[in-house]
Design a protein that fits this description.
mainly alpha; 153 residues; elongated
């Protein structure tokens, strides 16, 4: 289908779908790489197998919050054209900033744990900020959904 002949809202929806699919792809690669990094980094540093640490949680957070959630949002975009809501772009960027901050702090804190070093309250504060962004992103997503569903006949 030629984009020049489609309606502006259809082109916007297609653009949003491609944006979401790109983000899903990036999070999939990062999530799998984080799992590989966890395995190799803990082995290389003699971290006892079976000990729980923050580093082991990073790949599941990336895959769940990044890949799975955004795949669900992609399906919602396909059905409801969420991108027609003014809040959609805010959701996308705030949510992704939160996921990146949260998982980066998981990795940083986890690496310190594996190396036997003390973590700082700064890491916890930045991770908390990341969680707030993720929460704000979910609220924006829900508000987008409500506004779109209310507009339907």
């Amino acid at each position: 289908m030629n984009l020049e002949t489609t309606s502006p809202s259809r082109a916007t929806s297609r653009s949003a779908q491609l944006l979401l699919l790109s983000a899903v792809t990036i999070y999939t690669v990062l999530g799998l790489a984080a799992g590989l990094f966890y395995r190799e980094f803990t082995k290389a540093n003699g971290f006892e197998e079976g000990l729980m640490g923050q580093l082991g949680l990073a790949h599941t957070h990336i895959l769940t919050l990044g890949m799975i959630v955004l795949l669900i949002v992609l399906a919602l975009e396909k059905v409801f054209s969420l991108s027609s809501s003014k809040l959609f772009r805010w959701f996308f960027w705030i949510y992704n900033a939160g996921v990146v901050l949260t998982t980066a702090m998981l990795i940083w804190h986890g690496m310190l744990q594996v190396l036997g070093r003390e973590s700082s309250s700064m890491i916890a504060g930045i991770a908390g900020l990341g969680h707030m962004f993720v929460g704000a992103g979910f609220i924006l997503l829900l508000l987008s959904l409500f506004s779109i569903i209310r507009k339907e006949k």
